[in-house]
Amino acid sequence: MEKIVSLQNSRVKKWASLHQKKYRDMYGLFLVEGDHLIGEAEEAGVLEALIFDEPCSRYCENMFEVTPQIMKRLSANVSDVHMIGVCRKKDQVSGSAKRAVLLDGVQDPGNLGTIIRTAKSFSFDAVYCSPDCCDLYNEKAIRSTQGALFHIPVIRTDLAPLIHELKKEGFAVTGTSLQESCPLSSLQKQDKMAFVFGSEGQGVSDKVLEACTNAVRIEMDGFESLNVAVAAGIIMYAFRG
Amino acid sequence: MEKIVSLQNSRVKKWASLHQKKYRDMYGLFLVEGDHLIGEAEEAGVLEALIFDEPCSRYCENMFEVTPQIMKRLSANVSDVHMIGVCRKKDQVSGSAKRAVLLDGVQDPGNLGTIIRTAKSFSFDAVYCSPDCCDLYNEKAIRSTQGALFHIPVIRTDLAPLIHELKKEGFAVTGTSLQESCPLSSLQKQDKMAFVFGSEGQGVSDKVLEACTNAVRIEMDGFESLNVAVAAGIIMYAFRG
Q: Are A122 and B229 in contact (CB < 8 Å)?
């Protein structure tokens, strides 16, 4: 265990930089707060370091006791945070993947986090986000995953080339669209399936829809309006891994 | 059309009071902002009055032009609101109702609003909220309904007596629980069905579960964790009206 008292300490500066996306991308690391999330990170084996300013109930190989001032500098919350975990991003997909979710411009961090949580619960193997999706590693998105992001790879990438790659690997890639689509209850189960969900306002872009194998819609009556995380939940449940 | 210039005007005072729950309950009215929501209220016939400070694209029998100062006083947002609708709450359930959702202590306004939106999309007839659910008429909840709350009755009431009433009317009332429950895929469709969803932290309370006809769980593998609005979406889709 190491004790750090200076805000100028190089580790403190590196950790503080993780509040910015470019440094999270550069280091492949991000911060989480709260006992539940840190416990999930520990269990998933992605906890790189543990920072605390009060006696600490969790364990990790790299433990750092810091001053309350340093804790305040590192925390995204105003008060009452006494333990922060430094976590490694999980972004390797297993070669035997059979279920994937692709997100095309999802804007709301709560929706993104909820979709990742649902994907893990229904045994999906990966979540892919287009570059214009909101950032996954902001606090609201992380909290909405309820720790699932430590257990499922989440990868930011251009969707059209990815879809061509998935199709080559034998995936049926199904877009979601109210037009020119088959109803969910008539979509056949395949060995390898990927589903694409779009942004809250616009849905899946035409360019991405064109790259897909086919398209599906959820049957509704009259008031045709579903939140994207709810729609994703219904479809992932129907074709859970 | 009437023009109002004084913040002391009695109508302005009444409208401003609608930011507080007790006055919304007393008058049976609430405020909404934005063209989309006002359009939905108009279409549903629940728009009582329209307040604006710039030329207005919507119509209603009671139109009030106000000053920007009054608009600012009435709006929940900091800027850019030029039209506010005064709406009547919708809280009468049709006698021929066959699908109902019951919410036991749902805390998050976004989840509550999303469940109402989903219920309308899957042709449910009513949403009942326990007294300890969060308030429906706060801005975040209203926005999450995407206007569905103008089209489906939402009623705040004690759930245990309601469940007994629904059972007398021939409803199968199904609670959601991970324990002592049947998997969703084996639950039989009935003519009249009601589903109970619980709070984000605790789920459905024991007292309410005991009053139910039976209980159901959504099949998951390993990481058993679903957002309540996602769980509600999956079950309402499976038994849509």
A: no
Q: What is the pTM of this model?
A: 0.88
CB–CB of A173/A194 below 8 Å? yes
**Could you give the CA distance from residue B136 to residue B154 in angstroms, rounded to a whole number?**
9
Distances (CA, A) of A124 to A14, A94, A100, A231, B218: 33, 11, 6, 15, 16
Count the neighbouring beta carbons within 10 Å of the beta carbon of residue A177: 18
For the purposes of burial, counting CB atoms within 10 Å of the CB of A106, is it exposed (0-12), middle (13-18) or buried (19 or more)? Answer: buried
What is the C-alpha to C-alpha distance for residues B191 and A103, in angstroms, rounded to an integer? 37
Rg for chain A, CA atoms, rounded: 20
B151 interfaces chain A, CB cutoff of 8 Å: yes
Query: Which residue among B118, B220, B227 sits closest to A122, beta carbon to beta carbon?
Result: B220
Amino acid identity of B152?
I
The whole-angstrom separation of Cα A134 and Cα B179 is 36
pLDDT tens figures, B3-28? 999 999 999 999 999 998 889 989 99
- Do the chains contact at A117 and B226, CB–CB below 8 Å? yes
